[in-house]
DNA sequence: ATTGATGAAC
């Protein structure tokens, strides 16, 4: 009698705990409920443990490692439990654990089911590990799961993520009933591979398009450096497409940042606020970056300061430290680095790159050496960019011999950006003998880059060796190196204007050149308040004088 | 219970 009534009580407790777990909001709450459950002997009770595992592995405020610890105490986990753990790790920072747990599962002779595969394939995709993806694909075929649409979609994504767009397309073509996810995965695959012609083609041939279709297309254009096209698609989306979300806006802000389109960027910020889009960390980082790249460092700082420090991650710190560095606000940049360390955010390779850039702008050679050494001390391996930045610091400070020695002592081969930094240092500090050597080496290293010939040509121009300067241009043409036209953007009232050197097609071209001549005249002869510049339409003046800058 | 998108430096 007693046994029956006590198991009745336990069942009641279990029911109560299950309904409380359904409303659980945080890991702290979950752990309390878990503790109560254990004290009532529910530590192997399937319905109870499943809920514990599910919340800690899948929910946003979960903790997959906690989930795994609970899982590893189970005598005989159900396939449901295995799948939850594999799913949790596939979305975590270390998707590799999904695969190792799968391996364990196979060793124990537990068979995966149709729900296990999408999580595993996703783990391979996130690892960009095609080898494991292919082996999963083989197993999927062997077990007769190859016509499951969820599995097929995850395979498309996996192949595309591994850069195998042909493999992705094969799965796509083999499908009987494709859905929006299949099309979006294919579209995103092309966009990620940088093939925007095919990406756009897929987009055009789609019957339905959702916010992800539009976002993938926009992001593809951004990643391909076609920022104006990205903005054009976004504008079209607002007219004929679905409402954008915070993910769309991240790509759009990146386009604004690269274009230097501050007013557009501000409009996008307002759009985000007005539409109540969730202010995620990623979005805030994009805002900080956009404001910094558009020259509005105050606004970047304002957004940054609005983030509570406990929520920050290394990305947003890097964005603001790098932004301050490029604005020449070196002290502030280094101060924020100290603050970052106080908050306890671990810096990474890019943090150090930003710090070295700050040192380069501030002429802080000693500090640069210090950062370079602490980078190594923290167990990181300096990349060619770190070395290039270090060369830049030394070259800007006029320590040309030190820069040269630094390059010679590196464990890696010199790269073009390094020698480029050294070359500008040589020109600025008038060591033209070294400049000539470096300039020649640079052409050898990067013979298809028009800028490298111009670089050496500039060296000859400084020492007035006009024949040699001209021969550089001839060498360039002889080798068939295309000179890419230099151009810049100016944003006026939210409209972007593009200016290409010597281009006269802009409707306000004449007025622009007139004003440019006026400005150049002022730079040479001093400011004259009374002149509006109408009579300065003189191209020769511009070309002659501008070569000096 | 399942699949598809986003941020930092060059």
Task: Write a compact overview of the structure shown.
The chain is an all-alpha fold. The protein is 70% helix and 2% strand.
Secondary-structure map:
Blueprint: H1 2-22, H2 27-39, H3 46-58, H4 64-72, H5 79-90, H6 96-107, H7 116-127, H8 130-142, H9 149-161, H10 165-174, H11 180-192, H12 196-205, H13 211-223, H14 227-240, H15 246-259, H16 262-274, H17 281-293, H18 297-305, H19 314-326, H20 330-343, H21 349-362, H22 365-377, H23 384-396, H24 400-409, H25 416-428, H26 432-445, H27 450-462, H28 466-478, E1 487-492, E2 495-500, H29 509-525, H30 539-546
Helix pairs in contact: 1-2, 1-3, 2-3, 3-4, 3-5, 4-5, 5-6, 5-7, 6-7, 7-8, 7-9, 8-9, 9-10, 9-11, 10-11, 11-12, 11-13, 12-13, 13-14, 13-15, 14-15, 15-16, 15-17, 17-18, 17-19, 18-19, 19-20, 19-21, 20-21, 21-22, 21-23, 22-23, 23-24, 23-25, 24-25, 25-26, 25-27, 26-27, 27-28, 29-30
This protein binds one DNA strand of 10 nucleotides through helix 3, helix 5, helix 7, helix 9 and helix 11.
Description:
Among the domains are: 1-56; 308-369, no CATH class; 383-485, Serine Threonine Protein Phosphatase 5, Tetratricopeptide repeat; 504-546, no CATH class. Helices cover 70% and strands 2% of the residues. The chain has helices at 2-22, 27-39, 46-58, 64-72, 79-90, 96-107, 116-127, 130-142, 149-161, 165-174, 180-192, 196-205, 211-223, 227-240, 246-259, 262-274, 281-293, 297-305, 314-326, 330-343, 349-362, 365-377, 384-396, 400-409, 416-428, 432-445, 450-462, 466-478, 509-525, 539-546, and strands spanning 487-492, 495-500. A two-stranded antiparallel sheet has the order 1-2. β1 (487-492) and β2 (495-500) form a beta hairpin. α19 (314-326) runs antiparallel to α20 and α24 (400-409) runs antiparallel to α25 (416-428). It is elongated and about 100 Å long. The N and C termini lie far apart (98 Å). GO terms for molecular function: RNA binding. Pfam families: E_motif (PF20431), PPR (PF01535), PPR_2 (PF13041). This is Pentatricopeptide repeat-containing protein At5g08305-like isoform X1.
């Amino acid at each position: 009698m007693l046994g029956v009534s006590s198991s009745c009580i336990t069942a009641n407790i279990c029911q109560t705990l299950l309904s409380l777990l359904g409303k659980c909001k945080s890991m702290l709450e979950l752990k309390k409920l878990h503790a109560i459950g254990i004290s009532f002997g529910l530590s192997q009770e399937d319905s109870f443990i499943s809920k514990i595992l599910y919340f800690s592995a899948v929910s946003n405020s979960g903790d997959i490692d906690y989930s795994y610890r609970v899982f590893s105490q189970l005598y005989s986990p159900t396939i449901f439990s295995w799948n939850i753990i594999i799913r949790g790790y596939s979305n975590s920072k270390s998707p590799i654990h999904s695969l190792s747990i799968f391996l364990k599962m196979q060793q124990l002779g537990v068979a995966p089911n149709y729900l296990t595969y999408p999580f595993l394939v996703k783990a391979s995709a996130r690892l960009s590990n095609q080898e494991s993806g292919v082996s999963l694909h083989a197993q999927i075929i062997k077990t007769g799961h190859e016509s499951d649409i969820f599995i097929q979609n995850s395979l498309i994504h996996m192949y595309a993520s591994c850069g195998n767009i042909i493999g992705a397309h094969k799965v796509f073509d083999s499908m009987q009933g494709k859905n929006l996810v299949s099309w979006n995965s294919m579209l995103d695959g092309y966009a990620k591979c940088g093939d925007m012609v095919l990406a756009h083609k897929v987009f055009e041939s789609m019957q339905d398009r959702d916010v992800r279709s539009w976002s993938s297309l926009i992001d593809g254009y951004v990643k391909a450096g076609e920022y104006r096209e990205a903005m054009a698609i976004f504008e079209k989306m607002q007219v004929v497409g679905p409402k954008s979300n915070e993910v769309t806006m991240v790509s759009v802000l990146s386009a604004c940042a690269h274009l230097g389109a501050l007013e557009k960027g501000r409009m996008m910020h307002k759009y985000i606020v007005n539409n109540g889009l969730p202010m995620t960390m990623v979005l805030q980082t994009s805002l900080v970056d956009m404001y910094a790249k558009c020259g509005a460092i105050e606004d970047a700082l304002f957004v940054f300061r609005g983030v509570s420090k406990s929520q920050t991650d290394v990305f947003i710190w890097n964005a603001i430290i790098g932004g301050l560095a490029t604005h020449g606000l070196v002290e502030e940049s280094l101060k924020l680095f100290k603050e970052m360390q106080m908050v306890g955010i671990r810096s990474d390779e890019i943090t150090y790159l930003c710090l070295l850039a700050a040192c380069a702008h501030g002429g802080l050679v000693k500090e640069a050496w210090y950062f370079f050494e602490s980078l190594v001390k923290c167990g990181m391996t300096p990349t060619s960019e770190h070395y290039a930045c270090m060369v830049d610091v030394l070259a800007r400070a006029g320590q040309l011999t030190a820069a040269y020695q630094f390059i010679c002592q590196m464990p890696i081969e010199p790269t073009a950006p390094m020698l480029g930094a050294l070359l500008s240092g040589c020109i600025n500090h008038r060591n033209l003998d070294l400049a000539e050597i470096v300039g020649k080496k640079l052409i050898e290293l990067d013979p298809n880059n028009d800028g490298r010939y111009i670089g050496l040509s500039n060296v000859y121009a400084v020492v007035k060796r006009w024949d040699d300067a001209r021969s550089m241009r001839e060498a360039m043409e002889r080798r068939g190196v295309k000179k890419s036209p230099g151009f810049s953007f100016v944003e006026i009232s939210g409209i972007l204007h593009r200016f290409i050197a010597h281009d006269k097609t802009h409707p306000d071209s004449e007025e622009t050149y007139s004003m440019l001549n006026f400005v150049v005249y002022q730079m040479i002869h001093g400011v004259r308040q009374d002149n509006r510049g109408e009579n300065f339409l003189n191209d020769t003046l511009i070309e002659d004088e501008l070569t000096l800058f």
